[in-house]
């Protein structure tokens, strides 16, 4: 094993409250700390680690840079001090392994080069969603998709399950250069969802609270009204189940029971 270690971890969602002692320990031991998170959290973390490197600067100022290029530059920024024999800790907003391309890529590359590299889990947006909205994915099952991926590919959808579409705030952007969406793109998503749901089916726009002094967003509205709603990059679309489950009588027969055995 080569000298130098990479630890990639998460800050959680809410400023200060979700940061664990294990994460703080890794930050304290690191020779180099890099971070990618919202401005409030970054400012707070810089107060504890002044030499912290802000990865968000790699996005550029004009807003036209391809995020895929930015992600590769972030990966390189993490790997360079590791290759110099440093202990590196990179901390990301939320959970470092959820909707985060860079952490997975950096760990994979570091391991291929012979370095010790680990990922520490953290509280993610979906954990906050279940708590804030009172939803248990174990009750109805869960389908979770990135919104644009769901829109442009033929992905299956089960309306008897809870459906979560992430990053609806940038739905339809195939250039990876924008941090917003447009009503016509949202309408395209609604049109596709109407294959399974009625226009009046209630959906939820959710945003987890970032600051301890604020509450989460829980805006309930008919599916047909989505194009008129406001969105942020962190907005998530939650679609409650529509249908009851249908018993699989063939499977029940293989177990030697009938539908009466179901709870």
Q: What this model shows, in words?
A:
The protein folds into 2 domains: 5-119, Tetrapyrrole methylase, N-terminal domain (Cobalt-precorrin-4 Transmethylase, domain 1, 3-Layer(aba) Sandwich), CATH 3.40.1010.10; 125-239, Methyltransferase, Cobalt-precorrin-4 Transmethylase, Domain 2 (2-Layer Sandwich), CATH 3.30.950.10. The chain contains 9 helices and 10 strands. The radius of gyration is 21 Å and the shape is globular. The model has no long low-confidence stretch (mean pLDDT 93). The chain is α/β, with parallel strands linked by helices and 263 residues long. The strands form 2 sheets. The protein has a 5-stranded parallel beta sheet with strand order 3-2-4-1-5, with helices on both faces. Strands 6-7-10-8-9 form a 5-stranded mixed beta sheet. α3 (67-83) packs parallel to α4 (101-112). This is Tetrapyrrole methylase domain-containing protein. One of its GO terms (molecular function) is methyltransferase activity. Residues 5-209 form the Tetrapyrrole methylase domain. It holds the Pfam family TP_methylase. InterPro entries: 4pyrrol_Mease, 4pyrrol_Methylase_sf, 4pyrrole_Mease_sub1.
Structural class: alpha/beta
SSE string, helices as H and strands as E: EHEHEHEHEHHEHEHEEEH
Give the second-level CATH assignment, the architecture of the largest domain. Answer: 3-Layer(aba) Sandwich
The N- and C-terminal alpha carbons lie at a distance of 53 Å
Over all CA atoms, what is the radius of gyration? 21 Å
Task: Give the count of helical stretches.
Answer: 9
User: Poorly predicted ranges (pLDDT <50, ≥5 residues)?
Assistant: none
State the fourth-level CATH superfamily of the largest domain: Tetrapyrrole methylase, N-terminal domain
Mean pLDDT: 93
- Strand % is 15-25%
Helix content: 25-40%
Number of strands: 10
Query: What form results from the Cα inertia axes?
Result: globular
CATH topology (level 3) name of the largest domain: Cobalt-precorrin-4 Transmethylase, domain 1
In the sheet with the most strands, the strands line up as: 3-2-4-1-5
Q: Sheet bearing the most strands, described?
A: 5 strands, parallel
């Amino acid at each position: 094993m080569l000298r130098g270690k990479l630890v990639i971890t998460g800050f959680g969602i809410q400023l200060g409250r979700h940061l664990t002692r294990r994460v703080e320990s890794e930050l304290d031991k690191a020779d180099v700390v890099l971070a990618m998170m919202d401005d409030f959290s970054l400012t707070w973390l810089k107060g504890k680690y002044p030499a912290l490197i802000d990865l968000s600067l790699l996005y550029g100022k004009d807003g036209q840079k391809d995020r895929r290029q930015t992600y590769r530059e972030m990966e390189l920024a993490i790997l360079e001090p590791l290759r110099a024999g440093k202990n590196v800790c990179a901390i990301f907003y939320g959970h470092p392994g959820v909707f985060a391309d860079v952490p997975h890529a950096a760990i994979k590359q570091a391991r291929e080069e012979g370095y010790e590299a680990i990922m520490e889990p953290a509280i993610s947006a979906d954990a906050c969603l279940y708590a804030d909205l009172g939803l248990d994915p174990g009750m109805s099952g869960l389908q979770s998709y990135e919104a644009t991926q769901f829109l442009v590919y033929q992905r299956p959808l089960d309306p008897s399950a809870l459906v979560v579409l992430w990053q609806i705030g940038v739905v339809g952007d195939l250039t990876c250069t924008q941090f917003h969406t447009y009503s016509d793109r949202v309408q395209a998503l609604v049109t596709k969802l109407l294959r399974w749901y009625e226009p009046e089916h209630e959906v939820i726009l959710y945003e987890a609270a970032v600051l301890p002094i604020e509450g989460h967003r829980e805006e309930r509205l008919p599916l047909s009204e989505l194009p008129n709603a406001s969105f942020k990059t962190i907005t998530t679309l939650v679609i409650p189940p529509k249908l009851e489950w249908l018993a699989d009588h063939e499977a029940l027969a293989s177990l030697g029971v009938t539908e009466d055995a179901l709870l």
